[in-house]
Known about the structure:
4 copies of one chain form a homotetramer.
Chain A: E1 2-3, H1 14-23, H2 35-48, E2 54-58, H3 61-72, E3 77-82, H4 86-89, H5 94-97, E4 102-105, H6 114-126, E5 135-142, H7 153-165, E6 170-173, H8 177-181, H9 190-196, E7 199-203, E8 213-217, H10 226-232, H11 240-250, H12 255-276, E9 280-281, E10 289-295, H13 296-303, E11 306-307, E12 309-313, E13 318-324, H14 331-340
Parallel strand pairs in A: 1-11, 3-4, 3-5, 5-6, 6-7
Antiparallel strand pairs in A: 2-8, 7-8, 9-10, 10-13, 12-13
Amino acid sequence: MLSFENDYSRAAHPAVLDAVVRANEHLYSGYGSDELTAQAKAKIRETCGAPDADVWFLVGGTQANQVVIDTITPAYAGVVAVASGHPNVHEAGAIEYAGHKVLTLPHHNGKMDAGELDEYCKTFYADANHEHMVFPGSVYVSQSTEYGTIYSKAELEAIAEVAHRYDMPLFVDGARLGYALTATGGDMTLEDVARIADVFYIGGTKVGALFGEAVVFTKHNTPKHFLTRIKQHGALLAKGFVLGAQFDALFTDNLYFRIARNANEAADRIREALKAKGYQLTFDAPTNQIFVTLDQPTIERLERDIKLGFMEKADDAHTVMRICTSWSTTPEEVDQLIALL
Amino acid sequence: MLSFENDYSRAAHPAVLDAVVRANEHLYSGYGSDELTAQAKAKIRETCGAPDADVWFLVGGTQANQVVIDTITPAYAGVVAVASGHPNVHEAGAIEYAGHKVLTLPHHNGKMDAGELDEYCKTFYADANHEHMVFPGSVYVSQSTEYGTIYSKAELEAIAEVAHRYDMPLFVDGARLGYALTATGGDMTLEDVARIADVFYIGGTKVGALFGEAVVFTKHNTPKHFLTRIKQHGALLAKGFVLGAQFDALFTDNLYFRIARNANEAADRIREALKAKGYQLTFDAPTNQIFVTLDQPTIERLERDIKLGFMEKADDAHTVMRICTSWSTTPEEVDQLIALL
Amino acid sequence: MLSFENDYSRAAHPAVLDAVVRANEHLYSGYGSDELTAQAKAKIRETCGAPDADVWFLVGGTQANQVVIDTITPAYAGVVAVASGHPNVHEAGAIEYAGHKVLTLPHHNGKMDAGELDEYCKTFYADANHEHMVFPGSVYVSQSTEYGTIYSKAELEAIAEVAHRYDMPLFVDGARLGYALTATGGDMTLEDVARIADVFYIGGTKVGALFGEAVVFTKHNTPKHFLTRIKQHGALLAKGFVLGAQFDALFTDNLYFRIARNANEAADRIREALKAKGYQLTFDAPTNQIFVTLDQPTIERLERDIKLGFMEKADDAHTVMRICTSWSTTPEEVDQLIALL
Amino acid sequence: MLSFENDYSRAAHPAVLDAVVRANEHLYSGYGSDELTAQAKAKIRETCGAPDADVWFLVGGTQANQVVIDTITPAYAGVVAVASGHPNVHEAGAIEYAGHKVLTLPHHNGKMDAGELDEYCKTFYADANHEHMVFPGSVYVSQSTEYGTIYSKAELEAIAEVAHRYDMPLFVDGARLGYALTATGGDMTLEDVARIADVFYIGGTKVGALFGEAVVFTKHNTPKHFLTRIKQHGALLAKGFVLGAQFDALFTDNLYFRIARNANEAADRIREALKAKGYQLTFDAPTNQIFVTLDQPTIERLERDIKLGFMEKADDAHTVMRICTSWSTTPEEVDQLIALL
């Protein structure tokens, strides 16, 4: 059975696993206070071109979203996101559990429009009753988005400009940041992200790690006593060095970007084939998530041999399904998939 | 200066105030454990035709919404409401502060459509990823709605039927229940509400009381240790008998409905006049809130003599304003208003 | 039946009630934005000798404690209180519901010792693991305390000094502040409280009002968007002017202090009588709460004619009971009580 | 430098690491829905002798405590624990962040006394004001405790009996369960724990795993929609199979207990040596945590060569330090330590 179900089905890149195995030869102090973690943070800061950045390692994406949004959003405020944003839809209410409302804007192929963000805030502050409402207190976007699309540098800068105008930090969810930054047609580097965003994370779980997300506060702007806040959320890993070892490997010799690029290349080939065979791509997106609108018979035929991901019902007869490549997808798997289309 | 700004500008109906003054002649035990409160509860139960109802008195509407929604909605779930619902828009995130997401449906002149509620739930449970999402756990509607419209008995029954099918209690916010039940063209009684809803409240703040909302759990279905939950929310009034005295007065000789009817009669007259003079009513609504879409010059002209309420911007040139009558509006005030239109 | 059960059994002082009745002659804007409320705030600021103070009106004591502690305590921190403190014992976990731990010190007749507070903080910051613990983030004391005792000016200043040294605001719960400031032997004025505390409240519920607590942030140090935070807690009263009217009356012609003094005078007489008759006073306290340790037969005898309050079991044979006077206690009631002892 | 700092300094037992490496050869479905996880759960159920047990894997100890306590404790209630309990002291307020108070009993060498638990509950329910207080809603104990001591079977049964009498589930924190169950003089098996407790967890982080705790609801008593609750807490691991692989290895051929026993044997030897050399053991405890009360010069001398753990100040001149062995401690390390004492 071929699987293009998601990008977190395989444990870890061999070099990452190897780093964990090698870490087993030493003893490390706990909670990320070790030298391996320090080294990984230094490499990330350097790759970000951000000597003033604070780097923290967390275990997973929803956890990172919850901890970051909760700590950067004032108590009287919510986080602004597009309606299709992961925290609004697929995190079981983790943000609301932490006491904050998710304030939603319409999405455009998964993306936020800077003008609409501006309009939202303008309307909010113009409302005579706004003190009875939830203030927009931070902005959440994902790069790449839930629909596999990416922001251009200009688009993200425009959002940041609006966010800062209304005194909101901009948070970029980078669960799939590697795939976004190595997509064909993308114009953004990690340095750009670190320059534009106030805080973002570099997803490891979906790009080669066993687990782990590197949260980067880009301007020494870590919320006060952040370690305590992490612990309070039940999110502090005792053996922090296991995270350090993995990110140290991912940020050695450009591994993170090399393996991310692999997923995009595989996806590009699949997209070509889909188009050639007349399939309907749901979104025009350049990263490792390909959404196709399929009728039921086609789904049944494909699922005999291929594990696909479910996205949503399109209408009574059609469903949006996801073909997801990853850092570990092989050319042979792509060949097999294309042959089955 | 004439004021039609809202329905909570005057302290209380004289009979209600008088009941409080008379209560001052006695000592009462605390926290609603007194006999005056017991008597008021008995009268409400009787008027509801619901001998199995549990009645609780809270101080205000947002408080009632927060306490009720928090206690009837499971921890893994949110409350379903229309997007224009008060807890979604004008309660400063009180529901999210209590840890629950507000799951929104589109509104139709402020009202929820039972079919759309059904569709929402069906889609939710059909989603392969729904365990990663916020379960619909309770249903919130308001009667009358934020736009002054009312549900017919059939409409509310249909919503209750869907809610119960998906194992959700139906909560009716009755901040303006008096106005809803005495509106021209309405077909529902308090008994109907008590029969159809699992929990609702009878708004006192906007219908003759200094403050106070009577929360009714209609079928001995009060959440466990509800008094403790109220206290935990900071919502337990020490001198509960002040609430008891007021509701005892409101439910003596049908006072609550008589004074509510007064507001609707005033509103009916104003609506007639508005239509006659060619004003554009924003919604077709029969209760004490009249929304009119006005251009800026008209607003400025009217606000020279009349305090109106702001609802929302309609477009660059127009604003939706509210003319709100209340239990205390006099025929003379209506005459003056009409003369100024 | 004579009642010395508590100090919130009678609705309100006639002058306060009268102010509410008079307020009924006018229409006021909502949520405390009216001129009556403004006037009451000005009078309080003046009596406090604190022109820079911000005054807010809330409905009840637990609510005030929850809203204030939640808004002044950082998210990574708890509030330090003595173990007998009201929020730690008798508020149904309202502080923890708001996400904060109550960090407890031993009490000394209900009071906190400044030296112990210092020791607690010193030990906390000296602990190598303190980032895994709850930071002391604010300090809560009550004046008078749950046991009727009061802090001297020097004692409260010492606590404030320690609190500020560790970057914690000092919050004084004044549910019974009137009784504390007019107690025989007390050396503190309202001005002193306003000078020493960062935030405190002047209790109305137990000193002549129907309900209401005046929260005073003494140095323009109101937490950001406090009105929104109040609303978020479900604690914003629609008819704020009902609070304004009451406090305006209480702070006219020194009424608040005059009626508070009445309770202490009654209590002083009762204490005299108790001592003369050989009763055992549980605490040496000068305010309106008198705690006596009684054996079961005495309790049964007294409760035939007098409603008393239950405090706690002392041992198998004895119970600590409370005799509570109030602003409304009459000399005749005191005579009757003494005759029954 | 020799390290006896803690039991989470080394990544993982080779067999556990090897299981993760082997898992890398396959693709697995996400969030613990894979067959490797199912197999690990089956092995745990079998070792527990509890065919009706539900097993869930979480990442860390504080997270497990937060998720379990939050989901088993009613909203109106707190969790009863001894004052020295980990959630009360060293979890940064994670329980209060989740809205629950930790209700504390005194500890006896880290342990709860069943009689005191009974007394606490009896007093609570006898208190006339208990509805204004936090109900005792669940019971938390740790096996082994924070001081390395263990409960006998009879002691734990007594606590369970009291807990159930007051309608509280008993939760056993087993972060170091392996060490507790293989301690010299212990009389409890994993089956006993599964029989006595309502929910407990088997700590992996401190007993051979990279990370991971196996939460066991012993009687098909998993809280409703527990997966959603886990996600809501940000605690759902995408690659759940990495947890499955590790626990599958730990529960193959009795590995978990064999490696736990190693730590206790090392600790027994160290204890012997300490006693022989006249050191003062702070607690009489049989597991892998040895607490010694040391004067400053001794600490300085030892810390030249050995990393120790800080526990707490004993007095001005003495500090309680921890010598902690683990599953990975070698006989040679023990020899070296003893030579240095």
